Amino acid sequence: MFKNLIVSCFIISSFSISTFAEEGMLIPSLISAFESNMQAMGMKLSAKDIYDVNHSSIKDAIIHFGGGCTAEIVSNQGLILTNHHCGYSQVQSHSSLENDYLKNGFWAKTFKDELKNAGLTATRMVRIDDVTSKVLLGVNSTDKEEVRFAMMKANIEKLIKEAKEGTHFEAEIKPFNYGNDYYMIVKEVFKDVRLVGTPPNSIGKFGGDTDNWVWPRHTGDFSVFRIYAGKDNKPADYSVDNVPYVPLHFLPISFIDRKEGDFTMVYGFPGTTEQHLVSSQIKYIVEKERPARILMREKSLSVINSSMRSSDEVRIKYSAKQASIANAYKKWIGQVGGLKELGAVEVKKQYEKAYLEKALSKPEWKEKYGMTIDLMNKLVESNSNDDFKYQMGIEYLYVGPEMFDLAEALNDIYMNYDKYLEKNELQAKLDILIKGAEYFFKNYDVNVDKGIFELLNAEYVRQTKGTEEIYVNYSSKSLTNLIYSKSFLVNKDSYISFLKNFKKSSLKKLLKDPGFAHWKLEASNFELNVVPNYRLFNKKMNELLKIYVEGKFIMFPEEKHWADANGTLRVTYGKIEGSAPTDGMKYTEHTTTDGIIQKFNSGNPDFDLLPGLLELYKKGDFGEYAQDGELWVCFSGSNHTTGGNSGSPVLDKNGYLMGLNFDRTWESTMSDYMFDPSRCRNVVVDIRYVLWVMDKYSGAKHLVDEMKLMKD
Ligand code: ARG
Ligand code: GLU
Hints:
This protein has 712 residues and is of the alpha+beta class. The chain is built from 26 helices and 19 strands. Arginine is lined by residues 85, 205, 208-209, 212-213, 323, 327, 643, 646, 662-663.
């Protein structure tokens, strides 16, 4: 019943055609509710072209890339495109000082030259079904929580088993709208995904951190992979005998002139949005949580950046790690700014007032929804510190010093030594650690780690353990010197030799190691005192959010409701559109290669170009890739996207590929909490630039020829 209500809300809202972006990340299997609105904005496709389970549809070309990004199939030989930053760690792992693919790019000349990537998956969605009533079958709202959960768990297990029966598919059931709805997602997971090509950083990461999250943009943020399957075209583990996957659908390429106002649609896997947080939680995020996390990352980055600048070896080792720390760091600064700019706390308070008034207008609503907001705000006031300690623990223990990763891995042996010995598994476990150590130390620099430890440890203590006095007495410096001069965790040879000679007495030795001992102290405190409180806070909040969101659906049926992003496949649509987020400033909707030269001339190393590239841009040989004599590099659109949408296809009115989504503008990043149609813009690299780079710069015209170019 709840689902029908959602759909009817969608239909009502679809009659109002906005001139701006359309908020919302829509579930593809419900897209028919939006068909008329999308068509009114120029789309020529039907809902069934976008999502169908009985016939092939665009859905079949959309790939969940490695679980975090999106990719799309562009040929009948399993060729896929995603962002450069999505394939970055794979490219990095194939790179060395001799074969510096980060710096120079890489292009496989033949299928045989394509590089395998252990652990990388490419997943196609087979079906997305509403299974709410089946999950809740026999669940009695008056029963105890444990009884209800057990019932639901049994239902879920049964449904998944049935869905997988007789197939090679995987299936999962995910809650939507805080458990007001459940959807089953059936998928096909390909496990042999090879690197075909990547442009150099000076294209794929052009603009680096200076331009990240910023418009105007000139980044060629793409890389190319290929899905391989067994001879039966089904997923198979890596094997030289595997063959290129033949897809159910692949995206034709839009080689058609574009202009501002053209319809756009983004199809991909947005990760997380939190549109329903209450005013006090937004206030906590803006004033406390984000500033503290930003500071932690600022400290790590100060160490990493300066070391990367002074050594090529450190640059290669740390480029992927640096990119990931810096990316969220800069986004958060944008979010805080955007939420303040929008007066988000005040906007939320106004909404909460209206919600309460509505709830009080009917006795049954009053009873169900009358107290919810108040309880949520109170919960934040009394317990947001539980969240704060958790987030800081994550920054310190999991994003901070890398030596902690080894300590955590060793702790498994420490805790389970007797068990592993008894089951004869000890040697295998140690071997895994020894192998992991090779990989770990390949990308490790002890001085960088030491610098990070010293700064983060002091900041973590200051933020979570109270007074300045403790902080001063704690002396991060002496602890740092002790650990980084004595611990065997920070030295490859002593670490591996410790593992190779492991015996019962090693356990004692382990506890005496200052690095392990310090990690153990902090990690146990985190596990025992921080995590449980954080979980409880979240559990209580999610229960309240479930009621709050239900109230929105029930009491405000005329509003457009959409389920927060949760890493599942979604459709969002809008237009090619520029923006004017700051007074006195207007951004055009596209950029060209002229901007690359202008940025290069600024002298900022983030805009460095390889000599050959500079020549090529200056020569301006754009051929059929150009529009009115210029080559579009990027364009911006009014599509509601978030992290995870990276690599998502941006489709035109015909369902042809116009470009790859790779970012949002800084002024948009608050859309994870509050969307503003007048300023939220996604950033896209134009497919014509991508193909030009393949053809003219990379000598990979054969890949362009593998695709299907649509000229009208
Ligand atoms: N901001 C984009 C996204 O969140 C792109 C990140 C990669 N680019 C970079 N310069 N680090 O993930
Ligand atoms: N670059 C982001 C990603 O990796 C997308 C940008 C965004 O957050 O919108 O998914």
